[in-house]
Input
Amino acid sequence: MSLQIDRREIYRYMGASGEPDGALKALAEEALAQVMAAAVPRQVSRRVSLSLETGGSVRLGQLETASKSLYRHLEGCTEAFLFAATLGTGVDLLLRRSTLSGMGRTVAIQAAAAAVIEAFCDECEKGLAAAAEGLYLVPRFSPGYGDLPLSFQKPLLSFLESDRRIGLSVTASLMMVPSKSVSAVIGLTPDKGRCGVHKCAACGKRGCPFRRA
Output
C-alpha cells in the first residue's frame, strides 16, 4: 500500500502541540510502520441521486434522513456518492496487542491508524473525482457530523453491502467493525469552488480538539 501520510496528522492525533521531540517522532514512525504492515485497505461506493426535500430531509437514492447539517452541506449538489472504507481486521488485532506494551504505544498506533484511514479515503476520492463526469466532489460528510445521526451508518452500510463486499459491518451500539473504518456521503456539484473545503470546516463540533484552525 502506497499512501502519502502527513506525519503532522499523527502528532496531532497523539495530542502533541508544536514541534514534537525526537522520542515522540520515533514512536510515531514505529507505529505507522506497524499499521501500514497490518492494514488491508478496501473501499466501496455507489453513485446515487440526490434530492433536498422541504423541511430539511435529504434523499440519497433509496435512503432518506433528516439532517439540517447534511442538507446545508449538500446544497447545490445534484448527485452524491455513498462511500465506505476500512483498514481491515489486522489493524484491530494490532491495537489489541499494543495494550500489552503500554498506553503510549496504543495511543501512537491509534493515531497512526487514524491518519492512514484518512489518507486512504483521500486517495479513494481521487478515483471518485475521475469518475464524476464534469462534476466536483464536496468534502465527505460522515454520520455523527453535525446533526446527521450516527444511526444513519446502518442503512448506509446496508445499501453499500459493505459487510459482503469489504468486510465492514456495524454493531447494535453503532460501532463499526473493523474499527478503523469510515462511512460518508460525498456530494457532487457543478460548482468547482465548493470542492476545496476541508471536512473539519463542515463539521459543527467546534469544541473538537482535532478541529483544524
User: Anything to note?
Assistant: The helical segments are 7-13, 22-38, 68-74, 89-98, 103-130, 153-160, 162-166, 199-202.
